[in-house]
Amino acid sequence: MDLRNKKVVVIGYGKSGIAATRLLLVKGAQVIISEKKNKEELPPSMISTFEIGGGVVFETGGHKIETLTSADLVIVSPGVPREVYEICYKKGIPVWSELELAWRYLSEKEKENTIAITGTNGKTTTSSIVSELLKLSGYRVFTGANFGIPLSEYILSQAKVDKLVLEVSSFQLETVETFSPKVGILLNITPDHLERYKNEEEYAYYKYRLFEKQKKEDFSILPFKEPWFEKFKDVVKGSILFFGKQKGLSAYLKNEDEFVLRIGETEECFSFLGFKLKGLHNKLNYIAGSLGARLLGASRESVEKLIKEFVGFPHRLEFVGNFGGIYFINDSKATNVDATLQALNSVNYPVILILGGKHKGASYLPLATLIKEKVKSLILMGEAKYIIAEELQGLTETYIVDNLAEALALAFKISQPGDTVLFSPACSSFDQFSDYKERGEIFRELVLKYAPSFFKNRFSNDKKEVYH
Hints:
CATH superfamily of the largest domain: Mur-like, catalytic domain
Shape: globular
Radius of gyration: 23 Å
CATH class of the largest domain: Alpha Beta
Distance between the termini: 56 Å
């Protein structure tokens, strides 16, 4: 689509909206920003740069139907409610994500060297694993899209790389038309974003769109016996490769400490000795990422080397400290129930579990069995606290507080040596924080600021060491 002098409306003025606007201006489009926030809520410098330098029109304080329906093209930011732009479909106006916009400006060679990763949980970690494997193999790599740098910024940079690693979300996959990575990885699908989707099936469908435009010579990597596979297998157009715990798959766990990759007719066996990430889910992420990276040209040596070197990310089962024999774990990235299940499976008990945040529509009942088994005390906070309390009542000692600071203060008081204080909210952060990173950083700061003195005084008569 030649965008010169075309009227393009960009809905949402966040990171992806800004990147899309910059690319659209370079391509000669006439851009209108449609933003629900009022103009005074946006940084003046972010507006003046485009108004003066690019002639961009800003419509703030809501989305005008007449503006949307007069556009030649609409670019929608992730998370914008679909009812905002549904009228565009009815009028035959194309609606793309920023990812789709940028994809159309990649060369065919770049597309043939792209790997994309999606899933409810683990996609950022796995994207980083894939990226590091390719770098260790000597390639120049761009890593971005949903997490990190928008793909449009890569196009604008005119950088030359050998491989592209893209993390993609269901929100982005809703509005793609031509997106077709050489290698696609679906890690998992568990209930999430049910405040947006009609049901789990609709959510799963958009995840499967990762494979919809692939060619038969491309690679589609999925978990073995993924629950939605039978429903959506016709959406998968590439060569299907499964990973999991069962022997004989394209990538599988041979036992707790070893895994196998099957590359063509060759079987490669690797040891997990020295692997630093906790939990079975992280081992599965590693084998899926390794398979994808090997198919895109990563070396066997890189897979062996990274096992011992990869340390993961902050806010994902991050060890914050041990104070008075009490372990503090920051898992703020757990924005859904399945992520919290994985965290509970990965830590030692007894656990003091801090849950809560903005409710996303899913049930918390899947946590019940592990809470009974491992959690000595449950501390509920945020917007969802009463919903969680009602669903999980009677399982263990339960407290309700207003915010994270109160939750931690209470955890300090009720914890005993040998306990693990696990902050794994199972909710999004948007009730009280800007994102999960801010939430996790505040948790870490509060622990490091107050725990040393609190436990030093509390156990001053003990000989227990207090350290971080």
